[in-house]
Write a structure and sequence with these properties.
By secondary structure, the protein is mostly helical. It contains 4 helices and 2 strands, in the order αββααα. The chain has one domain.
Length: about 130
């Protein structure tokens, strides 16, 4: 059952923790995490929110790898991913602190997880042909 839990719940939970005041609130998501001087003389900065997006993209990659494996948990995994996306959408529409670009990008990543998961499962279902003799 634990393997069916969508990994994208982690960035969702981190954002919600920031909404309730942890990590310095939503302003903490704009805190600089890394700042590097480039050879061009420019300064490249990565904020906590940017790092959250990168982490969500890495988790999306793992979710897509999980979707390619056929197992009895695949349906539950897709269902939970869909529920997570619906919760993202409801929160985005109804809560003012969730109406940010960062939250929208995280919601879009969750949507891609849902669509890709269904596409992979439909494609693998088309190949599952058995002939009864």
């Amino acid at each position: 059952m634990l393997a069916a839990i969508p990994l994208l719940i982690l960035p969702f939970a981190i954002y919600n923790l920031a909404m309730i005041g942890m990590f310095g609130g939503l302003a903490g998501l704009n805190a600089d995490m890394v700042s590097l001087s480039m050879l061009s003389g420019a300064t490249w900065t990565m904020r906590f929110g940017d790092l959250l997006i990168v982490g969500a993209l890495l988790l999306l990659f793992v979710e897509l790898l999980k979707a390619t494996r056929t197992s009895s948990r695949a349906l539950m995994d897709h269902l939970l991913s869909m529920i997570l996306f619906i919760v993202f959408l409801i929160e985005f529409l109804l809560l003012a602190p969730a109406a940010t670009q960062l939250f929208f990008i995280l919601m879009t990543i969750s949507f891609i997880d849902v669509i890709a998961g269904f596409a992979v499962s439909m494609r693998s279902a088309g190949r599952d042909v058995s002939i009864g003799l």
